[in-house]
Design goal:
By secondary structure, the protein is an alpha/beta fold. It has two domains: about 210 residues, Rossmann fold (3-Layer(aba) Sandwich), CATH 3.40.50.720; about 35 residues, no CATH class. The longest helix is centred in the middle third of the chain and has 29 residues. The chain is globular and about 50 Å long. About 45% of the residues are buried. The structure holds nicotinamide-adenine-dinucleotide. The site of nicotinamide-adenine-dinucleotide (NAD) has 30 residues, from α1, α4 and α6.
């Protein structure tokens, strides 16, 4: 038994990293989940991993690219068909793009980052909000980043998209609180997931571990975060207990964003 007993939750980008850790935590706390991802093999493995740890859990998976509006509409319709309602949306799928200076940033990569990180999150809101409004209940957690509250060297489209996620979260908070729906965003710092491992490879292709050690030095905790340390916060934000926190952008970064 947990705080999400009986809840129906959609999790995007569920096959790996933060989405996978949150999927595991939601099921552990009693939720039935729809895991959405565009990586078929990873999604299959993720589902099997959770089912092994939590026998009898209701886990549905679907392939979708969150940057495609039609596919987002379909995953929301599938959740309603399977669960009859959608209590929570963890709007998590996102990519970093490449790291490059502003004036030489590849435009196609720039657009792809915006399509997935900004429009992908928006489409999720667009199709889930009417369902939540009708049932007069909903909890939404959008995934921003410390790049949604600060600049990050050589990651302009990522930073732009994550500031947009923070902004969209505040608008949902204003427009939908009257329907018993709240929306918050998390702003993780560097959390050890495949995405971050890839970023360290870009910073130091010969010795990514050295890049990781160097990066960790600036954090008050002297270490990176773990996906489970994000998942436990997300589970709270998706729960009934989170009823009067709305439109917040919550840093999960060991305190690093407080540093001057
Ligand atoms: P990850 O690359 O480890 O996992 C992302 C998952 O999302 C993968 O399973 C991938 O297949 C899926 N995905 C990506 N684009 C998709 C799309 N268009 N449609 C469907 N699925 C898609 O990444 P992560 O580190 O777990 O990041 C998850 C989210 O957290 C992202 O939005 C990221 O920007 C954000 N974030 C991560 C960190 C971090 O340190 N890991 C920090 C701040 C923010």
């Amino acid at each position: 038994m947990g705080n999400l007993q009986g809840k129906s939750i959609i999790i995007t980008g569920a096959a790996m990293g933060l989405g996978y850790a949150a999927s595991l935590e939601c099921v552990k706390q009693g939720a039935q989940i729809l895991m959405v991802d565009y990586n078929e093999e990873a999604l299959k493995q993720a589902k099997a991993g959770i089912e092994q740890a939590h026998k009898g859990a209701k886990i549905v998976t679907t392939l979708a690219n969150v940057a495609e509006e039609k596919e987002v509409k379909q995953y929301v319709e599938l959740a309603v068909k399977e669960f009859s309602r959608v209590d929570g949306l963890y709007n998590n799928a996102g990519i970093e793009g490449r790291q490059a200076p502003i004036t030489t940033y590849d435009i196609d990569v720039f657009k792809k980052v915006i399509d997935i990180n900004l429009l992908g999150v928006y489409y999720g809101l667009r199709y889930v909000l009417p369902v939540m409004q009708q049932q007069q209940y909903g909890r939404i957690v959008n995934v921003a980043s410390v790049g949604g509250i600060r600049g990050v060297m050589h990651q302009m489209p990522y930073v732009a998209s994550k500031h947009a996620v923070a902004g969209m979260t505040k608008n949902v908070a204003l427009e939908y609180a009257q329907y018993n729906i709240n929306a918050n965003a998390i702003a993780p710092g560097a959390i050890l997931t495949p995405m971050v491992a890839e970023a360290f490879k870009q910073v130091n292709p010969k010795d990514p571990k050295a890049a990781e050690t160097e990066y960790s030095r600036a954090n008050p905790t002297k270490r990176l975060g773990l996906p489970e340390e994000v998942a436990s916060v997300v589970a709270f934000l998706l729960s009934d207990g989170c009823s009067y926190v709305n439109g917040q952008i919550l840093a999960i970064d060991g305190g690093q964003s407080n540093s001057y």
